[in-house]
Here is the input.
Amino acid sequence: MDSKHSEAEEPEVKSLNFIEQIIEEELAAGKNDGRVLTRFPPEPNGYLHIGHATSICLNFGLAAKYNGKCNLRFDDTNPSKEDPEYIDSILADVRWLGFQWDGEVRYASDYFQQLYDWAEQMILAGKAYVDDQPAEVISAQRGTPTEPGVESPYRGRDAAENLDLFRRMKNGEFPAGSRVLRAKIDMTSSNMLLRDPIMYRIMHVAHYRTGDQWCIYPMYDYTHGQSDYLEGITHSICTLEFEVHRPLYNWFLDQLVDTVYRPRQIEFARRNLSYTVMSKRMLLELVQKGYVDGWDDPRMPTISGLRRAGYTPESIRLFAEKVGVARREIVVDMSLLEFCAREHLNKIAPRVMAVLDPVRVVLENYPGDHTEWVEVENNPEDASAGTRLLPFSRELFIEREDFMEEAPKKFFRMTIGNEVRLKGAYIVKCERVEKDAEGRVQTLFCTYDAGTRSGDGPDSGRKVKGTLHWVSAKAAIEAEVRLYDRLFKDEDPAGHKDADFKTFLNEHSLRVLKHCKLEPGLHAARPGDRFQFQRLGYFCVDKSSTPDGLIFNRTVGLKDTWSKQNAR
Ligand code: ATP
Ligand code: MG
Here is the structure.
């Protein structure tokens, strides 16, 4: 990550969060020889979302702060749900966010042999056994938080028989689901996870990395802690639901290794966003059933969706920093994410003029075929961005909603008899209106005041209340513009017991505007380019855009109009 940038964004005095406090205490005590090694461990069963992004920023951020390193490891223990497409998207997303993992990408599947050898070691030590009961029976025997579990009739099998059966499981002699390997811990433990958890299951499914080499796969709980151990992770930062798994991870390591070193697991609360869902299962359903245009639909809370919408990595890192870490689960308001987008885009996005819902303006006292060039700033926030020239002519387009025939007093845009400035150009006055048979405004006939040209007319500094954006009719190019709204109407669509989350989809979350009029320089815009359409918001060129068929996505409006609308 660009260190200059993060310094600029950080408030001068910042108190340590609870994870930083732990790390600093350990560093002061000389633990792990001062080494800090974190990891981000996604399961490649979906695209990453904004919640993952906060976890990525946290893990890579801590490594950077403490001169450490951060691994990227795929926890790929369930081949039936995993896919190389997800691997590629995750790698791309982490890089795009601005982070580089240490060394090669790691995979839990790299440790399958080691995990298997350890399982045999546990069998020989009488710490694991093969259970022939079906999954439902095993699950029913686990008991409840208040009642102890029931021991399996196979629990007393001797090591030799267990080893034989386990090897035959591995050799593919048994059908899927017919046997499992379980750890022999304690069926009466108050922690349900310690009631002889399953270590291995039979699955005759090819793995995208190990192919047909294995037909037994280790459970996540038997894999995760050891993977951290094998990599020398010092701080295994994870979300709160894993707190109860921690004793199990420790138990496995206690059976298997005798070093003093252990990865230290630290839990923090998930970050959730309002008006969306974060479950990969739900996101997958939206994609598969066509409610959205793929994982990177700009309305999705995925990193790829935010990128396609026009979010910058900087804005997402800023969001992660503002959200912070805590032990208490919180729902972060979507408007904070949008605020972060505006913060950064305001600094970097070139200003351009675009008219989304055009209405024609004719300046009756302006020479017919004349074109003059007016100079406008590219970005008032960034002097180095310079200026550009825009063609100005007799016929122009302005935004339909910038004109009102019967205007209230406070309406400072165009109305009959009132002067407004066309940004960077002249003061104009509407004289009369022409409408079609339905009464819809067709053309606004105006006059311009030749002495008021911005910058150099004798009356260039004359003030009027309203300034409008515009484009020259003959020079304008056309584009499609997609306006997005929240994907869901409900603040917490996944939080309803008796209603499917999809019933809360916002049917107005996408509005497509064809034939928008843009200043001519935008013909050179290419996918991924970001702009501020003046007075309208921030927009990004969509990936499906071509030079002849420009398509823009609205990233976010200029102001938080949404929370206002909601308050009404
Ligand atoms: P799954 O249900 O498939 O496990 P998951 O969201 O936990 O879904 P993982 O791929 O296991 O997905 O997540 C990778 C890492 O991201 C984990 O360490 C997890 O704790 C973290 N993470 C996931 N969701 C959030 C969230 N909303 N806020 C913060 N961290 C998250
Ligand atoms: Mg998970």
User: Anything to note?
Assistant: The chain has three domains: 18-268, 273-350+479-567, 359-469. Residues 1-7, 564-568 have pLDDT under 50 and may be disordered. The chain has 14 helices and 27 strands.
